[in-house]
């Protein structure tokens, strides 16, 4: 299984919900690129059919959880028919208890889309108007304001999903398509969307899912696919500019350890370094007497490849989750209403934590390659810190400090959230996943990785320039030329922060990887 193709999501204009499980690129297309959402007719029919079952149970004098009872620790409390609409609205209002900074627009849109997909399965018992309202809000660009803290990753991402449901009711605050903060009622009216008046089961159905953590996992995998390709490029530039060898990346050597991701990264490194004049300059054993390179150069495919394999495993889990209908209780295919534990976020939380470990290690080896380039004892002839006038100029000394500081932060972010659990709801919910927290820290970690790789690319570009008149490979030269459009070449010290920020944009957008691989026959 290959990790998500980074450029595919922007090409998806319309996403159909309810005909089949959503693809990862479709989630990214709606969340990040504003793709239009349409409901499959068969999904609307399925929703209507199961809603009829719920309405029949609502008239049953026997209690049914979430339909004629309270929630959580109040599950044994019977609610009279005339109070049930109040019950559903009260659930949403009380659970919309998030606090802290706003969550990013793309995360909220992913969360909304994934909840819509579960609603469209017909296993939740909501009315068709509920799924139609969520689709309309997405298409109108109405993004409820969701706060950073509030989810324990079990019984669903309750607080984040409640803020969305509250907006669908015409309450709370939202952002418009233009980013303006307004009352939800105002935004719905402007989009000709009627506020929802929730009925039996619907409040519960809107908030009992792992949609927030899953959405962030899918966005992270999309971004990581770009960054892992870029990491291979950056490593190639470092190996080349530090007069390392590409012999260790040979296919037959890699095949001795048949790890899939390792083979991909080694292949990328061979492609990136093909035709390098710098590499050719020291292939003669009489010229180069070093037996082998340091681990950070020689073992790049092993580390990057392990991260690739981790991402593939995470995508497998995410793909299974995309095929799920997460709610409690659910309406089964044969019409039963059953309580279950599928809302527990453990499967997603584990891989979010696993990815944070991989991200930290890829950043760590990148920073070590950068540090080698700045140390004249290890860089094979480069000036200290790549400075123009040694002693007067500091070169990239503090750029490496920045990378080191980020790597240190990434190590802290790699501490798993999913091993923690704080009981809640009067001990009814006595073991939780903390998957939302795992997802939040992974997003921060991926941002950190993009910056560490940018510093390596910037450093290696200057090192390549300093090897002139030797010519780099076509791929590494193309990246160096791209970097030169936003950052100057060797010379006296200058204000470096804007250059790091600009190269970070090139890294995160995929421009660095694209510049390199368009010159190669990348597998």
UniProtKB/TrEMBL annotation:
InterPro entries: Aromatic_Lyase (IPR001106), Fumarase/histidase_N (IPR024083), HutH (IPR005921), L-Aspartase-like (IPR008948), Phe/His_NH3-lyase_AS (IPR022313)
Annotated family: Belongs to the PAL/histidase family.
Location, primary (coarse class): cytoplasm
NCBIfam families: hutH, PRK09367.1
Origin organism lineage: Bacteria, Bacillati, Actinomycetota, Actinomycetes, Micrococcales
Protein name: Histidine ammonia-lyase
Species per Swiss-Prot/TrEMBL record: Microbacterium trichothecenolyticum (Aureobacterium trichothecenolyticum)
Reactions the enzyme catalyzes: L-histidine = trans-urocanate + NH4(+)
Domain of life per record: Bacteria
């Amino acid at each position: 299984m290959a990790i998500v193709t980074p450029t595919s999501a922007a090409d998806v204009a319309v996403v159909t919900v309810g005909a089949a499980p959503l693809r990862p690129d479709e989630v990214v297309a709606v969340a990040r690129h504003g793709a239009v959402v349409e409901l499959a007719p068969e999904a609307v029919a399925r929703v209507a059919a199961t809603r009829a079952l719920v309405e029949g149970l609502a008239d049953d004098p026997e209690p049914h959880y979430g339909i004629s009872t309270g929630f959580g620790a109040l599950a044994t409390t019977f609610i009279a028919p005339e109070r049930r609409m109040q019950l559903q609205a009260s659930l949403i209002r009380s659970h919309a208890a998030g606090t802290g900074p706003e969550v990013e627009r793309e995360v909220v849109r992913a969360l909304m889309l994934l909840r819509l997909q579960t609603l469209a399965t017909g296993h939740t018992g909501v009315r068709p108007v509920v799924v139609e309202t969520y689709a309309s809000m997405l298409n109108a660009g109405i993004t409820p304001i969701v706060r950073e803290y509030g989810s324990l990753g079990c019984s669903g991402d309750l607080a984040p999903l409640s803020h969305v449901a509250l907006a669908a009711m015409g309450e709370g605050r939202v952002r418009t398509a233009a980013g303006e903060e307004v009352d939800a009622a105002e935004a719905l009216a402007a989009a000709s969307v009627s506020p929802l008046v929730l009925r039996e089961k619907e409040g519960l159905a809107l908030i009992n899912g792992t949609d927030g953590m899953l959405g962030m996992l899918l966005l992270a995998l999309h971004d990581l696919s770009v960054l892992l390709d870029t990491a291979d490029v950056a490593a190639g530039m470092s190996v080349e500019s530090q007069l390392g060898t590409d012999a260790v990346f040979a296919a037959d050597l890699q095949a001795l350890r048949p790890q899939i991701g390792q083979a991909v990264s080694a292949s990328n490194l061979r492609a990136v370094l093909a035709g390098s004049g710098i590499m050719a300059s020291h292939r003669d054993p009489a010229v180069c007497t070093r037996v082998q390179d340091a681990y950070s150069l020689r073992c790049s495919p092993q580390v990057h490849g392990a991260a690739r394999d981790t991402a593939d495993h995470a995508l497998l889990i995410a793909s299974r989750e995309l095929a799920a209908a997460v709610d409690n209780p659910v309406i089964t295919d044969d019409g039963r209403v059953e309580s279950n534990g599928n809302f527990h976020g453990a499967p997603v939380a584990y891989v979010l934590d696993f990815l944070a470990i991989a991200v930290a290690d890829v950043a760590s080896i990148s920073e070590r390659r950068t540090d080698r380039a700045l140390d004249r004892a290890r860089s094979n002839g480069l000036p200290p810190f790549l400075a123009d006038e040694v002693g007067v100029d500091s070169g990239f000394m503090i750029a490496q400090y920045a990378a080191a500081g980020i790597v240190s932060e990434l190590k802290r972010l790699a501490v798993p959230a999913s091993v923690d659990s704080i009981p809640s709801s009067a001990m009814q919910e006595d073991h939780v996943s903390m998957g939302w927290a795992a997802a939040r820290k992974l997003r921060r970690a991926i941002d950190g990785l993009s910056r560490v790789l940018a510093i390596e690319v910037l450093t290696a570009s200057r090192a390549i320039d300093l090897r002139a008149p030797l010519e780099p490979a076509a791929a590494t030269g193309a990246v160096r030329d791209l970097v030169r459009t936003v950052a100057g070449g060797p010379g006296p010290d200058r204000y470096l922060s804007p250059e790091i920020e600009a190269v970070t944009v090139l890294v995160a957008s995929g421009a660095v990887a694209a510049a390199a691989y368009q010159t190669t026959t990348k597998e």
